[in-house]
Amino acid sequence: MAITSAFQADDTGSTPVTRSKLGLYWVLTTVQYALKTIRGLFLWVEKAMSNVIYPSSLEQCKELMQKGVVILDFYAEWCGPCKAIAPLLDEISMDFLDKVRVIKVDVENSALRPLVAKYGVRGIPTTMFIRDGEVASAMVGIAPKQKFIDLINKL
Predict the structure, then answer these.
(1) CATH superfamily of this structure's domain 51-154
(2) One of 72, 82, 85, 112 is an active-site residue; which one?
């Protein structure tokens, strides 16, 4: 084996510089993967702590609406404005964690269609503010966060 400098190849054909670059690449890739995993974990915990509920049955939805303040959000997966308002409702559910529950009702879920008909939802997103089972206020479309906060504080 010959003595080599940092820029000369040894008998294996690799240089110390190449080996250190591969080591650095491995470290950076591992750190990047770890950061993505940690970010995913934080997002999972945040979602678990969120007060947003996606009911699967009409009975579950009615039970959740009986007590306290509820924001009933009628949405569809394909609806652009519904997707735009979703992060806002997530924030509100976190801000008012002990005071408000957000129930998201998919208007295309056949099990929840009687609820859509009961409240006469004709456009989405429709957001209803319910206190102890009674509708206190409703709005259709997107609104700024402050409007939601004002309506919640009135309840």
Answers:
(1) Glutaredoxin (3.40.30.10)
(2) 82
Length of the chain equals: 155
Q: Is 61 a catalytic residue?
A: no
Q: Which long-range contacts (CB under 8 A, 24 or more apart) does 104-110 make?
A: 104/52, 104/53, 104/54, 104/73, 104/75, 105/55, 105/61, 105/72, 105/73, 105/74, 105/75, 106/54, 106/75, 106/76, 106/77, 107/74, 107/75, 107/76, 108/76, 108/77, 109/56
Residues of the chain short of pLDDT 70, as ranges, are 1-22, 40-50
- Out of 79, 136, 142, 155, the active site residue is 79
> pTM of the entire structure?
0.66
